[in-house]
């Protein structure tokens, strides 16, 4: 409820679904971005073919649809359990590991499904990203020392940092042994995998685009210029109006 620390069961289920959906989608998008980096650096002449608009649209739709299915299955599998322990969720939001601790039934099958899905989806994405960057760095190191090598590294490093933070924090929260009690560390790590990557995505991807940088510079310059004109008009309203009448 708004203004309180309580939440309905339907609201909690919605939170679980959305967290799982966005985590899944974010992970696959990071994997696709690694493939994009690989194509741009290792296969620059074939980049328009490898990362064609049709492929981008299809991969986005496939990611969203598979994310809906993934989140729905885990949400249904979690909320079919009876909850008879304390209803206090030791987390900033409802998530599967915290809810499993509140169930009074056997949650072994749920834990196995989480482990297997995390191993397949997360582990598969991690291996693909590592493999992509092995090819990328082996290609970049063959570049002559200069602007090209620096530009390639500056493009890849932010993506690697987000992948590292996202995977390490989410793996710890979801693959941690159930016997370990939740605490402040879990709450902090949940922020790292749920808030930090989406927050930095515009900075990492959009602001590295030269057209985007140019548009932001023009916008800032226009606002600064219009602000100076406004301050001049406020300071000298009579002189400006006389000058305007004189020229007319």
UniProtKB/TrEMBL annotation:
Principal localisation: membrane
Pfam families, sorted: 7tm_4 (PF13853)
Record's bilayer topology term: Multi-pass membrane protein
Domain (G-protein coupled receptors family 1 profile): residue spans on this chain: 1-205
One cellular component term from this protein's GO annotations in UniProt: plasma membrane
Keywords annotated in UniProt: Cell membrane, G-protein coupled receptor, Membrane, Olfaction, Receptor, Sensory transduction, Transducer, Transmembrane, Transmembrane helix
Transmembrane segments: 12-34, 55-73, 112-131, 152-175, 187-207
One Gene Ontology MF term: G protein-coupled receptor activity
Keyword Cell membrane attributed: yes
Localization annotation: Cell membrane
Keyword Cell membrane: yes
Superkingdom to which the source organism belongs: Eukaryota
InterPro entries registered for this protein in UniProt: GPCR_Rhodpsn_7TM, Olfact_rcpt, Olfactory_GPCR
Function in brief: Possible taste receptor.
Protein name: Olfactory receptor 14C36-like
């Amino acid at each position: 409820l708004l203004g309180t620390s309580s939440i309905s069961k339907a609201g909690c289920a919605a939170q679980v679904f959305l967290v799982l959906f966005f985590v899944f989608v974010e992970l696959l998008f990071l994997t696709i971005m690694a493939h994009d980096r690989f194509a741009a650096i290792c296969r620059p002449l074939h980049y328009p073919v490898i990362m064609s608009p049709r492929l981008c649209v299809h991969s986005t739709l496939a990611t969203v649809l598979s994310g809906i299915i993934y989140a729905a299955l885990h949400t249904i599998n979690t909320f079919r359990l009876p909850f008879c322990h304390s209803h206090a969720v030791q987390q900033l939001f409802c998530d599967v590991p915290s809810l499993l601790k509140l169930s009074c039934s056997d949650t072994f099958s749920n834990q196995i499904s989480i482990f297997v899905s995390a191993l397949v989806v997360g582990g598969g994405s991690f291996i693909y990203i590592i493999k992509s960057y092995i090819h990328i760095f082996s290609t970049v190191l063959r570049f002559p020392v200069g602007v090209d090598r620096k530009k390639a590294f500056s493009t890849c490093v932010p993506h690697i940092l987000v992948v590292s933070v996202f995977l390490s924090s989410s793996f710890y929260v979801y693959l941690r042994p159930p016997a370990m009690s939740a605490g402040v560390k879990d709450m902090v790590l949940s922020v790292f995998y749920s808030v930090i990557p989406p927050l930095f995505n515009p900075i990492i991807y959009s602001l590295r685009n030269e057209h985007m940088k140019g548009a932001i510079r023009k916008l800032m310059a226009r606002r600064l210029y219009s602000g100076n004109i406004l301050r001049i008009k406020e300071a000298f309203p009579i002189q400006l109006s006389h000058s305007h009448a004189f020229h007319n």
